[in-house]
Amino acid sequence: MARTAESVHAVIKAYDVRGVVGEQLDSDFVRDVAGSFARLMREDEAQRATRIVVGHDMRASSPELAAAFADGVTAQGLDVVLIGLASTDQLYFASGLLDCPGAMFTASHNPARYNGIKLCRAGAKPVGQDTGLGTIAQDVISGVPGHDGPHGKTTEQDVLGDYAAFLGGLVDLTGIRRLTVAVDAGNGMGGHTVPAVFGPLPLTVEPLYFELDGTFPNHEANPLDPKNLVDLQQHVRATGADIGLAFDGDADRCFVVDEKGNPVSPSAVTALVAQRELAKEPGATIIHNLITSRAVPQLVTELGGTPVRTRVGHSFIKQQMAETGAVFGGEHSAHYYFRDFWGADSGMLAAMHVLAALGEQDRPLSELMAGYNTYAASGEINSTVADAGQRTEAVLAAFAERTASVDRLDGVTVDLGDGAWFNLRASNTEPLLRLNVEARTGAQVDALVDEILSVVRA
User: Fold this and answer.
1) Do the domains at 5-158 and 162-260 have one common CATH topology?
2) PANTHER family this protein is in (predicted)?
3) Rounded to 10 degrees, what is the CA torsion of 150, 156, 161, 164?
4) 53-64, pLDDT tens digit by residue?
5) Active site residues
């Protein structure tokens, strides 16, 4: 069935497939995506795939769409391994374990009416616009060719226990002091993976919203938005927990709250994990995106490691991970990437590193993390603008006399000297300018934010 280019490109995006179920995304559409993906993996000389592993989240539409995807794959002669309910990093694990391409049905933190597909090659290597999604979109537009050979077979395999054991082999928590851990799963897949991973460990888990419910009845499963951390912050204070963890809908991102209920910066988590990884492999390369605090590359350099700065976005991080052999990579959005996890991101693995660091010593988390918070930061501030390029140039002009340097790796990053800098970058999908500011003190950050926004929003 041929479809319009506009309708297809609205769903098959740069990094994944995502849309409103019943309007943009249905079983027939998914079946065509699956058929094209199967052909691509079967005919790829580096892959020559014979099977594809498929997992899905807790959304009401996910089982049906995953089944349609399996039909599309088997119709092309490839086998399918269904792992059922899974977090995205659990699907990446299965792709690495089984050495085959994978498909994860999730719309992450998007509202309940959405669903989507994250695709990867064998070993959890990402599939993006230039590495397969562009071809798939063209196939879906023009019609996916049929396959004359026999159909593949579908089997089921439970990998949750293997996933938990694998992570336990990467970060040993068996010898730490007992910790009380408040966890907000947001009715997402953390409610599935946390009991399996944490159950055998010296952890007392205080669960919040572990019931799998794709309607997200309590709050959005998006901890990047501060309002979605409020329940966890209150839960930490009420239970006297040592630490709070919040997972997004597909549990590939993890946010940390200290024992006082204060959010821990993902940059601080990146620095902590980088230090732990460099202790195991001195001189290793650490990836960080350009929004991450300057504290990260400074610490990596001080410890004898090699920091590498990248654009924002998982495809750029994963590409740099592969090209440099980096042991670890972190983003300001709480995506954390590990060479030992096939270069893929795992919020659970990052959480385990923080738990290990906390449990191996006696200080509270707020004191442990204080050493990694050497700068103040604004967080990401979005502004709706008619012309992002024009507003950006106006800001550059306003700061021209105070600018030490400017680079355009991703938007514009303006270094003002003495530890102060800001980045302005346009959204790829919305009429937004995104601002991030960092400086020595909170007062400096606030002053810079006010000054920049007065130009951006003029």
Assistant:
1) yes
2) PHOSPHOMANNOMUTASE
3) 50
4) 999 999 999 999
5) 108
